[in-house]
Amino acid sequence: MAEINVSKEVMVEMAVEMWRLNRRILKTRSPGSGASPALRYSCEKIANALEELGFTFIEFDGQPYDSGMAVEVVDATEDDSLPAGALRVQETVKPVVMWRGELQALGQVVLVKGVGRESESCKGSGGATDE
Questions:
Q1: What is the DSSP code (8-state) at residue 119?
Q2: Lowest CB count within 10 Å: 44, 51, 74, 131, which one?
Q3: 121 in a structural domain
Q4: Total structural domains in the chain?
Q5: What CA–CA distance (Å, rounded) separates 52 from 2?
Q6: Which superkingdom heads the taxonomic lineage of this protein's source (predicted)?
Q7: How far apart are CA 107 and CA 70, in angstroms?
Q8: Within 13 Å of residue 106, how many CA atoms lie on the same side as its CB?
Q9: Contact at 8 Å (CB) between 96 and 58?
Q10: Which of the four pLDDT bands, split at 50, 70 and 90, describes residue 118?
Q11: How is residue 53 annotated by DSSP?
Q12: 122 within a domain of the structure (yes/no)
């Protein structure tokens, strides 16, 4: 059988699109959702093959945002139920892609920024004190 040569960039792009497809399929797992068992099975097989090739994906949904994350922020919304200044990843648009433990592609995320009142633990001690 002839060998197929594919660039790493193409493999990473295919892996990301498979992640997106698999994520959508997993969201529609309930009966009558439109995602057939055969489609879910195929997505799982491809995801397993990517894993066997050494690909891993890192998602950040719901995690506090850290400027050290290997992600690009593509959008941000405000939420008055979060304390002012709090940053949380609302959605992973594209995961961080690793291949055999090495970073291959930065992720992309949507953040939610807290604009509510400061929590008591976040307020500074600007008040008077008894000496």
A1: P
A2: 131
A3: no
A4: 1
A5: 21
A6: Bacteria
A7: 6
A8: 10
A9: yes
A10: low
A11: T
A12: no
Q: What are the tokens at 40?
A: 């879910």
Q: Measuring CA to CA, which residue among 84, 91, 83 is closest to residue 62?
A: 91
Q: How far is CA 4 from CA 1, 9, 55, 97, in A?
A: 9, 15, 18, 22
pLDDT at 6: 86
Q: Which two tokens stand for residue 16?
A: 């990301």
Q: How far apart are CA 13 and CA 20, in angstroms?
A: 11
Chain segment 99-108, per-residue pLDDT in tens: 999 999 999 9
124 within a domain of the structure (yes/no): no
Q: Tokens 């055969």 — which residue?
A: 38
131 located within any domain: no
Residue range(s) defining the domain that contains residue 16: 8-116
